[in-house]
Amino acid sequence: MVSQLDSSTDLSTLDWIDDVTQIEQYCYTHLQRTCTKFQDYLARRKQQQAREYFPTVSHAFEFLTKVAPVKFVDGAWLYAVLEQADLHAHQDLILTYLEELGLGDPLANHVCMYQDLLCQHGLEQVTQPLSPIYYEQAAVQLALAHVGVDDLAWVIGFNLAYEQLPLHLLISNYELQELGIDPQYFNVHITIDNLHNGHAKRSIDAFYQGLSTAKDQAIYIKRVKQGYLLNDIGKSSSQIIAELDLEQFVLRVFQDKARIGQFIHNDKCQFAGKTINQWLSDPDQIQDFLNILIEKKCIIQNEAVENSRFWQMIDQPNGRMFGVFNATEKQIIKDWIQGARLSTRLKPTHLEHSTAQTSKQLKTNEDVFELGQLKKSIQQSNDLKHQLSLLKPYLAPNLHATATGLWATQHYTRLLFPAHRI
Q1: Contact 333, 325 (CB under 8 A)
Q2: Spatial CA neighbour of 255 closest among 283, 279, 293, 289
Q3: Which of 157, 311, 318, 342 would be a feasible disulfide site paired with 338, CB 3.0-4.6 Å?
Q4: What percent of the chain shows pLDDT beyond 70?
Q5: Which 3 state secondary structure label does DSSP give 270?
Q6: Domains (ranges, CATH) in the chain?
Q7: Please, which pLDDT band fits residue 260 given cuts at 50, 70 and 90?
């Protein structure tokens, strides 16, 4: 991350931060522009224009899988401020972090919420290898989580940028709901991050608080700018949306299935001189095989799936391939065959009836022992600072969504913010 900071783009793009009296007004102006663009979007939709992000449910599925690396570290950068938990200097950021963790409630913990969203639609089982660029922003956030107390200006700058309401969040929230996908994870980032009294307002207050205690305000502002620009590293949500490709998404589904399918077909049926097993034996051949199925009218695109023999084979209870593809994979195949013109809202029966919410609190014997030991250590201490230090490791990005982490977050909140306890 240091190299990223050293090679930061021109900081002059953030000259508005130099006039510290205008930062709040700048954020309000940015918000107004975003909301105006969203109203323009709504006007287009009222004129019966098509969805602009997710033409089908499967486009939304691809988006949800590709932004997952960042969502699984949601709020991670703020873990660094817990080093200051016994001071008032960073109380706004500490409370923001605890709220990102749902104050210990798995239904409100942002990582738990996103894990549940993927599980609800069977997306945790959809193999979608991602290139390293999809993990770069997540890596930045994890690196910021462990900066020292003297480097919190980077965290403050990053947080200031992250809490600005982006247009893609508003449109994603709208279109996901339209498609029958629970948008709550995205909706909460609109409500709780609001600029009046939410995380966006606290990000501004934290900037001013840090400025008032900075030893060198010029260096502080420079580091805030550097932290602000760290938001631009890696694939942004807007870039991911612009690059959604259902053809490649469905191809990956077939390639993954072929790893087993290449061994189980007989040799009676051949296409272009090759058996099905031979076609499936090489991932690079799958696209050509699908093209042949289209040529042979086994798959008829841009028509109702019922017109395709291949669909009947995988969907009908008496079909020869019934059960090979799960509900999520079938949804992706269906959208690919029918196209956006015939796309439909996701039916409630698609849901995998995941036990995701309760599973977050299921405890192994090791978990029960660890949680018991932590509770015992807390009970044996009457020193607030010592109790906070015992709890802090379990609020780390890799642990806060576990059963012990959720309990630790609840207790941490009780100690520092009793009025916000759940």
Answers
A1: yes
A2: 283
A3: 342
A4: 91
A5: strand
A6: 14-243 (1.20.910.10), 247-356 (no CATH), 361-420 (no CATH)
A7: confident
- Which residue in this structure is represented by tokens 């105006």? 36
Mean pLDDT of the 177-186 span: 96
CA distance 309 to 298: 5
pTM confidence score: 0.93
Furthest C-alpha separation in the chain: 79
Place of tokens 């738990």: 112
In one-letter notation, the amino acid at residue 152 is L
- Per the DSSP assignment, residues forming a β-bridge with 274 are 271
Cβ atoms of 153 and 227 within 8 Å: the answer is: yes
Q: CB 122: neighbour CB atoms within 10 A?
A: 18
- Bridge partners (DSSP) listed for residue 271: 274
Strand partners, 275: 270
- Measured at the CA of 199, the angle between CA 169 and CA 11, to 5 degrees, comes to 75
- Burial status of residue 273 (CB atoms within 10 A of its CB: 0-12, 13-18, 19 or more): exposed
Assigned token pair, 188: 């909460």
- What is the DSSP annotation of 218-243? HHHHHHHHHHHHGGGSS--HHHHHHT
Which pLDDT value is given to residue 358?
42
Q: What is the pLDDT of residues 330-354, one digit of tens each?
A: 999 999 999 999 999 997 755 544 4
For residue range 11-60, list pLDDT tens digits in order.
888 999 999 999 999 999 999 999 999 999 999 999 999 999 999 999 99
Residue type at position 78: L
Number of residues in the chain:
422
Residue 131 has pLDDT above 80, yes or no: yes
Angstrom distance (rounded) from CA 407 to CA 419: 17
Tell me, what amino acid is at 412?
Answer: Y
By three-state DSSP, how is residue 72 classified?
A: coil
Res 353: pLDDT: 44
Cβ–Cβ contacts within 10 Å for residue 210, how many? 22
Alpha-carbon span 57 to 278, nearest angstrom: 32
